[in-house]
Amino acid sequence: MDASVLTISPGRPLRASVTTFGALVGSGFRRYATYRQATIAGSFTNIVFGFLRCYVLLAVAAGAVGGRPGGYDTAQLATFVWVGQGLLTVVGIWGPPDLSDRIRSGDVASDLLRPVAPVTAYLAADLGRFLHAVLTRMIGPLIVGAIFFTLAVPTRWQTVPLFAVSAVLATIGSFGCRFLINATAYWLHDARGPLVLWTLSSGLLAGLYFPLRMLPEWLAVTLWVATPFPGLLQTPLDVLVERDPPVQQAGLVLLQACWAVALLALCRLVQHRAERKLVVQGG
């Protein structure tokens, strides 16, 4: 059977593919649902950092001319922080280095023997993690933020569904970036260096520490167009706080979708080249 095709039954490939993909998503959900104490501890950490970030940005707003740094009012900034703290885990920018660890140990060989392409299998598991994080890690920071701060409430009917689509695309984009970083282990045999660089740069370039709209306009536009980083956090948060008109909101999500597709295609290409390298080396 072709390892690049997600299928079990030749007679019903589409139905079998959907069933298999759903099973892998469920497996990813159950994996993270097992670690209840880690979930609680992670939520508490996100809440603590939420207070720190929120007070810093509100202090910046208080000292800014007009009280709107980057075009955000105080309610939008508070929403940006608290939803961002929940979205950080939902998107999974700093996910576990499962692939690189399996490459280093040699366990990745068993992944290549399965009838599901590695990119597809890892993406399905990551979407299961996404669903678990939405239910467990997103709600806590949002409730705490709503209790202690005034949050911006969406006023357009399309904002919430567009935010949901943007969050899914952000997760797929984050997965693509993390897969590529982990895949460097095929050539380096140890991806800890690239992973450290990713950890240090991704939060800053994705808009975790402050909205990218606070940067000079030319730099913010360059990051948006030339890199996938703003689509990991900044875009869904800007959509939710209604920072832009509806047409521009949709345009940002469309750009986000383009980056997600491009990253998945690049993941498949890199994985294919890595498999050829393993075969050449006799792996």
Structure overview:
By secondary structure, the protein is mostly helical. The protein has one domain. Helices cover 72% and strands 0% of the residues.
Ends apart, CA distance between termini: 19 Å
Low-confidence stretches: 1-11
- The helicity comes to over 70%
Count of helical segments? 13
Protein name: ABC transporter permease
Organism: Paractinoplanes globisporus
Keywords: Membrane, Transmembrane, Transmembrane helix
InterPro entries: ABC-2_transporter-like
Question: What is the fold's blueprint, element by element?
Answer:
Blueprint: H1 13-33, H2 36-63, H3 74-91, H4 98-105, H5 108-112, H6 118-136, H7 139-148, H8 159-183, H9 185-188, H10 192-206, H11 217-226, H12 234-240, H13 246-280
Task: Kindly list the characteristics that best describe this protein.
mainly alpha
A few lines on this structure:
This protein has 283 residues and is mainly α.
